[in-house]
Design a protein that fits this description.
The protein contains 27 helices and 22 strands. It is of the alpha+beta class. Strands 1, 2, 3, 4, 5 and 6 form a 6-stranded mixed beta sheet that branches. A 5-stranded mixed beta sheet has the order 10-9-13-11-12, with helices on one face. Strands 20-21-19-22 form a 4-stranded antiparallel beta sheet, with helices on one face. A hairpin with a 5-residue loop joins β7 and β8. It is globular and about 75 Å long.
Length: 723
């Protein structure tokens, strides 16, 4: 069975077993389009599409239905004679893409453009003809997803096509909705392509399309894309994860038991609610497994409970019952209703323990929130439709989306505005492509309050992990190079300080127009806008010869055991003569972690885990990585790692954990216990392992301690010190 068919079968089986409350985009798959006689069944497929559309939009009248039929006729006649690599008629592709969007609740204009999305690119149909028959709006969407020709752009065709689509999405996000559905159907049918082409498409999907689906809130598309890309790029890990899911399916269903208890609690409280089990998809399980350091997952780890109610107030009523009748895990509580995510997502997240100590994660949301959580911006309809009865303060009608979500229009997200701004300063396709992937890797936003010397104030939104350097360029553009200091929450702080959500920031600027950015600002900048501006300025204004610049990485020669490695340290080795090798504190790498190195001032080589954020930022700023390898044999000092344990607070917890660590033959270098917050406590241990393989066993043993609900390694992130 091919990887994509395996994904289909496993997702369908899991959905049936658990009663999955998730939009099943595969349900209208090949069988809905094709029968024993393909040509005879295609007209029936458009009727099926219209039926799905009217079920989601009962107000769609005869005019909308006629528009879809005309679009289908034009697409079918234009693509007639064309086939896909699988041998199927080409029209099955635009039909499948449109069915995906119809299931997600897209309105008529989006579906019309989806049916026609390949006509201008692959047939003799022109944009003028589309405009004549379907209007300017449909034409704009079709043009937005039409690829640029390789004949005209060569190797730059792909990045420039994405640039074109993103610019178009800046005016109408429905462009990107069509592109995402198009990529999902293409990924579903990758099995007919060569393995190298499958891998190339899967990598672009992973680096660009999946982050865009996350930012647009289209979780139903994102989760399936993730699983299919995972199956293509990491088939062994995918198979192991699916085997774990299958093995868990044979065990008694812990979540079903807790769900029954929860239903009884809500009935007794007279709260009308639906309770369902929402299984984790393969990538979610794999991530949890990595977080646990390979430790065994329990029955409650393979899914979460989903509670659906009618009104916002009911969400908090459910939360009150959960935290009254069960033991809450306070560290797991998040309120995304009062503070929605930047991608429109709203829910209450919590975790509860029953009277036997079994823990389950719970999501609480309204049915409208659930629809938007699945379909994101697609669920919001036409961004150009106006809510005439709800004027904005300046008298301009708001979009229908803004009516639903308040006066901030979610179809014009801040992250997209920032992306469109910096892409103008990245004319080189390679620079744009690299910066785009780096920008999309930031999956959270923070709000920072700015206060300037003249009393002016405002707010800026930045990606999580942004520094004061990023803020300076976000506020002042090119003039950000004149920043000589900052006050964070009223206190002077280094320019490299990482900002947190809600921080107050005052930027101090030098009046001299000749002010220059320091070269080490590239170490602190995370946003493409800041990095591009700094890099361009430094290139145009070379530093004096005596300026202290980072050392360039010498050419690498094959590693030799012990080269440049001080005795007694768990270090990686390199062949750079006399180089001191140091392990990065931000990610605490240990064998057999995949690692890479960078030359720093003084000629030393600092070693990071490959997934460490510092690694990505160093490469993005042009630093050349130095290949490194782990020294053979066990160093005298052992291997060090940092492990965190999350637990319900109880007497003797510290003693039990340290006893387990000692029993595993592991030494404790340092330990820290955060002050208990209600029922939750976090322990941080830096341990010295007799060998790297001992880490997984240690984490399993720690997790077996009563009251401990999570054990994981320190995340490979950049330290966010406050100076």
């Amino acid at each position: 069975m091919s990887a994509d068919n395996a994904v289909d079968a496993e997702r369908a089986a899991e959905a049936r077993r658990r009663g999955l409350r998730r939009i099943d985009l595969r349900r209208l798959g090949r069988a809905a389009l094709l029968g024993t006689n393909t040509r005879d069944r295609l007209p029936g497929a458009i009727e099926h599409l219209i039926k799905v559309h009217r079920a989601r939009h009962p107000q769609a009248g005869p005019e909308a239905v006629e528009t879809l039929r005309r679009a289908y006729v034009l697409a079918e006649s234009s693509h007639r004679g064309q086939t896909r690599k699988s041998g199927e008629p080409y029209i099955t592709h635009p039909l499948a893409v449109t069915l995906i969007l119809a299931e997600l609740g897209a309105e008529t204009t989006t579906l019309t453009a989806s049916l026609l999305h390949d006509t201008v690119e692959d047939t003799d149909v022109t944009l003028d003809q589309v405009r004549e028959h379907f209007g300017a709006e449909v034409t704009y969407l079709v043009d937005g997803v039409t690829k640029l020709e390789k004949v005209d752009h060569g190797a730059a065709a792909e990045p420039e096509t994405f640039r074109k689509m993103l610019v178009a999405a800046g005016s109408d996000v429905r462009v990107m909705s069509i592109k995402l559905a198009d990529r999902l159907h293409n990924v579903r049918t990758l099995g007919v392509m060569r393995p190298d082409k499958q891998a190339r498409i899967a990598k672009v999907t992973r680096d660009v399309l999946i982050p865009l689906a996350e930012r647009l809130g289209v979780q139903a598309l994102k989760t399936e894309l993730e699983d299919r890309v995972f199956a293509i790029l990491h088939p062994a890990e995918y198979s192991r994860t699916q085997a774990m899911i299958a093995a868990n399916a044979q065990q008694p269903d812990l979540l079903a038991t807790i769900a029954d208890d929860l239903r009884k609690v809500l009935r007794d409280a007279d709260i009308a609610a639906e309770v369902a089990i929402r299984p984790r998809h393969a990538v979610s399980v794999h991530r949890l497994l990595l977080k646990r350091g390979g430790a065994d997952l329990g029955g409650g780890d393979f899914g979460r409970l989903l509670v659906l109610v009618g009104e916002d107030a009911d969400c908090y009523a459910v939360l009150g019952e959960l935290h009254t009748c069960f033991t809450p895990v306070i560290a797991e509580f998040k309120d995304f209703i009062a503070a929605p995510k930047f991608n429109l997502y709203q829910s209450l997240h919590t975790a509860i323990a029953d009277d036997r100590g079994r823990i389950a994660e719970v999501l609480v949301r309204t049915r409208q929130m659930h629809r938007v959580a699945e379909a994101g911006v697609i669920a919001l309809g036409d961004p150009h439709a106006t809510a005439e009865h709800l004027p904005s303060p300046d008298g301009t009608p708001l979009s229908a989306a803004a009516e639903v979500w308040g006066r901030v229009d979610p179809t014009q997200p801040g992250w997209l505005a920032r992306l469109l701004e910096w892409q103008r300063d990245a004319p080189d396709p390679d620079t744009f492509w690299t910066a785009l992937r780096d920008d999309l890797a930031q999956d959270r936003e923070i709000t920072v309050f700015t206060a300037q010397g003249g009393g002016d104030s405002g707010t800026i939104r930045l990606p999580a992990g942004a520094s004061c350097v990023d803020a300076a360029y976000a506020v002042h553009g090119e003039a950000g190079r004149r920043c000589i200091g900052v006050r964070v929450n009223g206190r002077l702080a280094p320019l490299g300080t990482r900002l947190r959500d809600g921080d107050s920031l005052q930027l101090l600027l030098d009046d001299a127009t000749a002010s220059r950015p320091a070269a080490d600002w590239l170490e602190h900048a995370t946003t493409p806008a800041a990095r591009i501006a700094i890099t361009r300025w430094l290139a145009l204004h070379p530093a004096p010869a005596d300026d202290d610049q980072p050392a360039a990485a010498p050419a690498f020669r094959p590693a030799r055991a012990g080269g440049g490695a001080p005795a007694g340290q768990p270090v990686a080795v390199t062949d750079l003569p006399g180089a001191v090798v140091r392990l990065a504190r931000c990610c605490t790498p240990v064998p057999p972690d995949a690692v890479t190195g960078f030359v720093i001032r003084g000629g030393a080589v600092t070693v990071h885990r490959t997934e460490c954020l510092t690694t990505a930022r160093m490469i993005a700023t042009g630093r050349t990585p130095v290949p490194v390898g782990w020294r053979e044999g066990t160093p005298a000092g052992g291997y060090r790692a940092t492990v965190l344990a999350e637990a319900l607070s109880r007497p003797r917890l510290l003693a039990d954990l340290t006893e387990v660590i000692a029993t595993e033959g592991v030494g404790i270098v340092s330990a820290a216990v955060e002050p208990p917050q209600e029922h939750r406590v976090r322990h941080t241990y830096t341990v010295e392992l007799p060998d790297p393989q001992a880490l997984a066993g240690l984490m399993r043993a720690m997790r077996a301690v009563p009251g401990v609900y999570d054990v994981y390694r320190a995340k490979p992130a950049v330290a966010a010190g406050r100076g």
